[in-house]
Amino acid sequence: MNEDVNIIRDILNGDIDSFKFLVQRYQKPVISMIKNIINDPHLCEDIAQDVFFAAFRKLKSFDSARSSFSTWLFTIAKNKSLNALKKKRILSINPIPEKADTNTPSENLQNKEFFDMLDKALYDLPVKQKVAFVLAEFENLPYQEIAQIQGVRTGTVKSRINRAKVKLAIALKGLNGDI
Amino acid sequence: MDTEKIYNLWKSKKSYLKTNQNFSNTIIKRINQYEQKKRKPFFDMYKIIDFISIQPLAQVALFAAGAIAGFVRLIFVIRMVLEF
């Protein structure tokens, strides 16, 4: 985005407060991505803060000719999330605050069972598949951008997402069959 | 319920996020602190005075350095007077 490049130029010229515009623009997708990768709602904001702080410190090394700012930022977020996963070994499923909906209680209960199953299937995915899936399905990033973030070819991203979807479909069908 | 509907509901639930209103302010505050720290001079007089006022050993060292400097200066003056 051209606007991002202009803001970055201002920041590098000493207008530190302009960084706030970038934070406000990208905080939601970055936090959401981290939350869905590490599955710890309490830790995700701390990691997101580290991501933005690291981005500010490394801003001079950002090259707009090589990638967009969002791709660069998501790459930092992905690396920080994976480091946090390694460090904390967050493998258990923690409850995630849910969005209030208008379904009936029985529907809610049934949905919760499905959601829990899908959550478990998501967190059981291999990390590379999980990152590709989260970026594509929850953040709606194009395959090409995900490929840049993961440092692989677009075909590899497609296959990672397909494999992840197959695993989730199996989990969903398994539960559907029980009901 | 339809599998696709469940999947889409789950996706919207996973995409939903309530962020802290102060998130960006906290980062800017942290960045400003970092920048201030970076700009601080290596030689900070106030920090040295604080250090000396707290550490008795530093006070002894400062007193000793003052005494030595005074003694050297005295010798130097005496030598100058004797030579004159």
Task: Explain the layout of strands and helices.
The complex is a heterodimer of chains A (179) and B (84).
Chain A: H1 2-12, H2 19-38, H3 41-57, H4 69-88, H5 105-123, H6 127-138, H7 143-150, H8 154-178
Helix pairs in contact in A: 2-3, 2-4, 2-6, 3-4, 4-7, 5-8, 6-7, 6-8, 7-8
Chain B: H1 3-15, H2 23-39, H3 45-54, H4 56-83
Largest chain-chain contact?
A: A-B, 36 and 27 residues
Q: Determine Rg of chain A (CA atoms, Å).
A: 18 Å
**What is the distance, rounded to the nearest whole angstrom, between the alpha carbons of the first and last residues of chain A?**
47 Å
CATH fold naming of the largest domain in chain A: Rna Polymerase Sigma Factor, Chain: A
CATH architecture of the largest domain in chain A: Orthogonal Bundle
Listing every helix as H and every strand as E from the N terminus to the C terminus, the arrangement of chain B reads: HHHH
Total domain modules of chain A: 2
Termini separation of chain B comes to 111 Å
Number of strands of chain B: 0
Beta-strand proportion of chain A? under 5%
Oligomer: heterodimer
Strand content of chain B: under 5%
Instruction: Specify the overall morphology of chain B.
Output: rod-shaped
Instruction: Estimate the global geometry of chain A from the Cα principal axes.
Output: elongated
Secondary-structure element series of chain A: HHHHHHHH
Helix percentage of chain B: over 70%
Low-pLDDT regions of chain A: 95-102
Core attributes:
heterodimer, A: 179 residues, mainly alpha, Rna Polymerase Sigma Factor, Chain: A, Arc Repressor Mutant, subunit A, 2 domains, elongated, B: 84 residues, 4 helices
Describe this structure as you would to a colleague.
The complex is a heterodimer of chains A (179) and B (84). Chain A is mainly alpha-helical. Chain A has two domains: 2-88, Orthogonal Bundle (Rna Polymerase Sigma Factor, Chain: A); 105-172, Arc Repressor Mutant, subunit A (Orthogonal Bundle). Helix content of chain A is 74%, strand content 0%. Chain A has eight helices and no strands. In chain A, α2 crosses α6. The longest helix of chain A has 25 residues, at 154-178. Chain A starts with a helix and ends with a helix. With 84 residues, chain B is mostly helical. Chain B has two domains: 3-37, no CATH class; 45-83. Helices cover 81% and strands 0% of the residues of chain B. Chain B has helices at 3-15, 23-39, 45-54, 56-83. In chain B, α3 (45-54) crosses α4 (56-83). Chain B is rod-shaped. The model of chain B has no long low-confidence stretch (mean pLDDT 86). The A-B interface holds A 16-17, 19-20, 23-24, 27-28, 31-32, 35-36, 45, 48-49, 52-53, 56-57, 97-99, 107, 110-111, 114-115, 118, 137-139, 168-169, 172-173, 176 and B 1, 3, 6-7, 9-20, 23-28, 30-32, 34-35.
